[in-house]
Amino acid sequence: MTDNEQEHPGGDDTQPEPTAEQLAEMDRDQLVRLGTNLDGVQIEEYPDPWPVKGTKAEKRAERLISTWFVVSAIAGLAFVVALIWWPWRYKYPGTDGHFLYTLYTPVLGVTLGVAILALAIGIILYTKKFIPHEVAVQQRHDGQSSEVDRSTIVAQLADAGNRSTIARRSAIKRSAGLGAGVLGLGAVALPVASFIKDPWNNEAEEDSLASTGWRKQSADETVYLRRNTGDPEEISLVRPEDLDAGALETVFPYRESEKDDPKALLEALRRADNPVMLFRLRPEDTANVQERKGQEDFHYGSYYAYTKICSHVGCPVSLYEQRKNVVLCPCHQSQFDVLSYCKPVFGPATRALAQLPITVNEEGYFVARHDFVEAVGPGYWERRS
Ligand code: FES
Asked: What gap in Å lies between CA 151 and CA 20, rounded to an integer?
């Protein structure tokens, strides 16, 4: 027995394997027959799914499958459009556009889900309706596939494709290509969209991730520091003499334009990134203060204001250890050094608390000079440490 005539494991032992030249001369039908014989496969039934060509039922099945692929393409396209152009900038509850903003993630999920689902349904329907469902019996055998196995399996796959009549079903081919192509476009759009949507390109300056309630709405607007007395409509402004040395007071923004607007007054107390800790350092500590570069004039005398929102994951920092001049976040025990621009000295937080620039106006009240110069709260892109 030569190498080419060795017995095929699990197949027809009486039939020698053909040579490479013989294989090359065989057509696909012969290769299919050879493959089934060598594998010990016996095809019991090999029915043509559509023995009578061009029936209404066949055309209906073709249209149904094409429809699913077109639905997949439309949903995929909708996903790409929504990914890039849906109003994705954060809108504060109660403001225009908040509802649309809240729909951003659901819309992405629904469009992508429908695109994948419709494509899958189209493929399943095509398999059920056009791929021949033969009944075959094969003896199981182990070992690596030989050259003959590889050649015959390719022929068998090509034969299955041929019998599925995909080659002449142009509507299905086109719609399937469209659906798969648009989904591929969606995969490409995911990283590309991040370059198109520039969070810093914010001419209206209304992006709440980059600004807070301390932002002046006009250049000459005054934003006061107020305390929360429990009654949102009771305006209690803060003056330097209100705080003892070593004291901490939580303050919120107040603007004259909101005086007769109970809703705005309440929102100013509720907005998550508004709370600020106002410290009055003890005289013996002021000499040890280390200012942050570029923020040397953000304080007023021994008064310093820092956001209350922890730079770890956003809990309210509130426990003030006056003797050690540290504030503690109760969530994960991060500690921030008040004498060193509230930089973290312990715990998981890695960024300093954002500092609010303050001064005292001619009436003697604390006011914010402008908004924070960086985003408050947890990790944020392009934020300084
Ligand atoms: S949120 Fe403050 S330490 Fe984790």
From this structure: 10
